[in-house]
Design brief:
- This protein has 13 helices and 22 strands.
- With 476 residues, it is α/β, with parallel strands linked by helices.
- It has 2 domains: 261 residues, Aldehyde Dehydrogenase, Chain A, domain 1 (3-Layer(aba) Sandwich), CATH 3.40.605.10; 188 residues, Aldehyde Dehydrogenase, Chain A, domain 2, CATH 3.40.309.10.
- The chain is globular.
- The N and C termini lie far apart (71 Å).
């Protein structure tokens, strides 16, 4: 079920003189060899994207939408094949991988509709003058997607670019290339003109360092860590290139005293361990009112400890391995640092087994503010649960990190909800749910979590330029 790995440039699949290994994180066995793009491949991709842009930007919005919808249908039809590829390369349980395929298709379907709604406007003017505002595709996009969602993250970038009339060169993640390859195949089969979508893999620093300074690249779209996002923004700024940055988070969850602690804790534990906690919006720092803290912590810990961990393609598995061998030592260090500073490890805290990159579902209680995990996103199956005496304290703790991507709250009090809407510093606030976004809603962060939005009616804004036309008419 795992696809043959190739680059996709100018409408054609190709190998390269260099390649690298793609490993199954559950078994540590090689899945395939991934070609590494050479400079000549990148030059070909740039030339193809420039030609593709000239064609696609002049294609009517209706035709663009029809092509995108045909590709999305193919992805839905191929759900099982794509999902199994994702499960093998990422370690995501098969049921979750199936949902990711559908979510990716939904991004395309939403943006296909938005392609026909990139409205301009007419501005009232004096007699003899006409003021009009036009939205036009920005140009060639250089996009970079992360490894944690091999299908839906490339889909966000590709959908926004293609719906807007742009062409795109996507560097997808080397650890999890199959999702992007399946997307490219669907668009090829749907009749997308050559060069509109190009897919490359290789050394991230080399590819970004070569593509971003090119004059023809007019937008850099990136999802990943804040450190890398800042570096790419600096590269882009040297050429006055626009950027769309969806960066790291460290999501707080405020659990108020009027909440059912068992229901919120059970929901929280399940959602925290989705994708092995490798989600930029993963609920991680739980600030629970002291009156319900003990019951919440006990319920959360019991549910986390009962999670079925194993090979993601096996029936009943709820959590697979972390995606690569780099995660396990990082997670171990964060737990040991918290333990040394006085935190209680309620469950987990160590590697699971001796084969594959598994880490135990982990719950830390009463973690002091100077522990590294209070400021560093673990990006793994670790939850922090701390008591708070008031909503004031909870909001203060929620805002105490440099990130502001997603935040969550459990309460039924209207006054609490009003305060959190005004005061919690995030781009996405969810109340009584732990879902952060849908295709029809804008998604992005504040502070060090980036800027720009993907999804919703705002999702195409970064992929468009605004042109004002002043037409002076001679009055007879």
């Amino acid at each position: 079920m795992y696809p043959e790995l190739k680059l996709f440039i100018g409408g054609e699949w190709r190998k390269s003189t260099r390649d690298m290994s793609v490993v199954n994180p559950a078994t540590e066995e090689e899945l395939g060899r991934l070609p590494v793009a050479a400079k000549s491949d990148l030059d070909d991709a740039l030339e193809a994207a420039e030609k593709g842009f000239r064609i696609w930007s002049r294609t009517s919005p209706r035709e663009r939408a029809d092509t995108i919808l045909r590709a999305a249908k193919l992805m839905r039809d191929r759900q099982e094949e794509i999902a199994r590829s994702i499960a093998l390369e990422l370690g995501k349980p098969l049921a979750q991988a199936r949902l990711e395929v559908i979510r990716g298709a939904e991004f395309f379907e939403w943006d296909a509709g938005e392609a026909m709604r990139t409205y301009g406007r007419i501005i009232p003017a004096a007699r003899g003058h006409k003021f009009a505002v036009h939205h036009q595709p920005i140009g060639v996009v250089a996009a970079f997607s992360p490894w944690n969602f091999p299908m839906s993250q490339p889909a966000r970038k590709i959908a926004g670019a293609l719906a807007s009339g742009c062409s795109i060169i996507l560097k997808a993640a080397e650890e999890t290339p199959a999702g992007a390859i399946h997307i490219a195949r669907a668009f090829q089969d749907a009749g997308l003109p050559p060069g509109v979508l190009n897919l490359v893999f290789g050394n991230p620093a080399e590819i970004s360092g070569y593509l971003i300074p090119q004059d023809m690249v007019r937008l850099v779209a990136f999802t990943g860590s804040t450190v890398v996002g800042r570096h790419l923004t600096t590269l882009a700024s040297e050429n006055m290139t626009s950027v769309l940055m969806e960066l790291g988070g460290h999501a707080p969850v405020i659990v108020c005293e009027d909440t059912d602690p068992q229901e919120a804790a059970t929901f929280g534990a399940i959602r925290k361990l989705r994708n092995s906690g490798q989600v930029c919006t993963s609920p991680t720092r739980f600030f629970v009112h002291e009156s319900i803290f003990d019951e919440f912590a006990a319920t959360f810990t019991a549910r986390a400890a009962a999670t079925i961990v194993g090979n993601p393609v096996d029936d009943g598995v709820e959590m697979g391995p972390t995606a690569n061998d780099r995660r396990v030592p990082v997670l171990t260090d964060l737990v040991e640092d918290a333990r040394a500073k006085g935190a209680k490890v309620a469950t987990g805290g160590a590697r699971e087994g001796n084969k594959g990159f598994f880490f135990q579902p982990t719950v830390l209680l009463n973690v002091p503010e100077d522990a590294r995990i209070m400021q560093e996103e673990p990006f793994g199956p670790i939850a922090v649960i701390n008591p708070v005496a008031s909503l004031d304290a909870a909001i203060s703790q929620a805002n105490s990190v440099p990130y502001g991507l997603a935040g969550y709250a459990f309460t039924n009090r209207a006054d609490y909800i009003d305060r959190m809407i005004d005061e919690v510093e995030v781009g996405n606030l969810s109340i009584n749910t732990l879902e952060a976004s849908m295709p029809e809603t804008p998604f992005g962060g504040v502070k060090s979590s980036g800027y720009g939005r993907e999804g919703g009616s705002e999702g195409l804004d970064n992929y468009m330029t605004v042109k004002h036309v002043w037409h002076s008419v001679k009055i007879s």
